[in-house]
Amino acid sequence: EAAGHPALVDHRSYKRQGIDKIPSVHLGPAASQMEKRGIRTDKGEVNRQIAADNKLLKEIKARITRLYNWSKAEAEKPEGQQPSMIDLWEAQQQLNAPRTRTGKIRALQESAALFSFLQANGIQSMQQLHEKIADMNSRYYDLRGKIVKAERRITTLTERGEMWEQYNQYKSIHKQLAKVKPEKREQFEQRHSRELILYDAAARYLKELKDSDEAITPKAWQLEINQLAAGKQTDTLAMKAMREDLKAVERLRKTAEQLSRQERDKSHDREPER
């Protein structure tokens, strides 16, 4: 909000707004009521997965942004003021020395993960670390684009499959209507109004699909969904692996900030009292 005026709501889709966020699936009245009663539905599961994906994407982007800005500022310092990676790694172990057995094991694992990350990427200086984070940023956008694109396509194909099932589920009712005598037609329509409405909606949806030169191929739709889901899972795992690398660098950043605070405190202590 600005100057007391509420912010405008953009009703365009995320895609049209240029936002790489996965849109949720419209539940519809039936699924919505079931979810409210605590009954998990297929559409509800899709939305829960979409929410988890969006949360992961947002979290990793925030981590990268913070580390990118920090490493850039550090890399721009005079060379003599930049801590080496090995110094930071050693300082991390000294500054974070837990006393419990569990804490020691975790600290050892974290130290090993950081060392592995630095060694695997040949990182010895702050400039090299900054370049790696910049590379991770580019990689993040590549993965995010693939994940978002796959999820959007899966959503589209899932809707098509549901409409195909809905069409076939109520097709027999529609056929029965054609055989009903005129004097009993209104009564039949009232008794089966819900089924007929759902059939008409599905039939209209599929007709519009055919009119736009899209083939009605339910088996092919499902096959594509399976392939997209497998590829998306691979990309999501790569994104999660990136998150672990970012966590390791964040521990390095924390150590650098601790050392910086200690140095400031020492400088302050050395200042003569006035």
Helix percentage: over 70%
Q: Can you tell me the residue ranges where pLDDT is under 50 for at least 5 consecutive residues?
A: 1-19
β-strand amount: under 5%
> Average pLDDT, to the nearest integer?
82
Alpha plus pi helix count: 9
Order of helical and strand elements: HHHHHHHHH
Number of strands: 0
* Largest sheet composition: none
Structural class: mainly alpha
Tell me the span between the first and last alpha carbons: 48 Å
What is the 3D form? elongated
**Radius of gyration over alpha carbons?**
29 Å
Description:
With 274 residues, the chain is mainly α. The protein contains nine helices and no strands. The protein has helices at residues 14-17, 28-36, 42-75, 85-95, 101-120, 126-179, 182-191, 193-211, 218-270. Helix 3 (42-75) packs antiparallel against helix 6 and helix 3 (42-75) runs parallel beside helix 9 (218-270). The model is unreliable at 1-19 (pLDDT under 50). InterPro entries: MobA_MobL (IPR005053). Belongs to the MobA/MobL family.
Task: Label this structure with key terms.
274 residues; mainly alpha
Write the layout of secondary structure elements.
Layout: H1 14-17, H2 28-36, H3 42-75, H4 85-95, H5 101-120, H6 126-179, H7 182-191, H8 193-211, H9 218-270
Helix pairs in contact: 3-6, 3-9, 4-5, 4-9, 5-9, 6-8, 6-9
In short:
The protein has 274 residues and is an all-alpha fold. The chain has helices at residues 14-17, 28-36, 42-75, 85-95, 101-120, 126-179, 182-191, 193-211, 218-270. The protein contains nine helices and no strands.
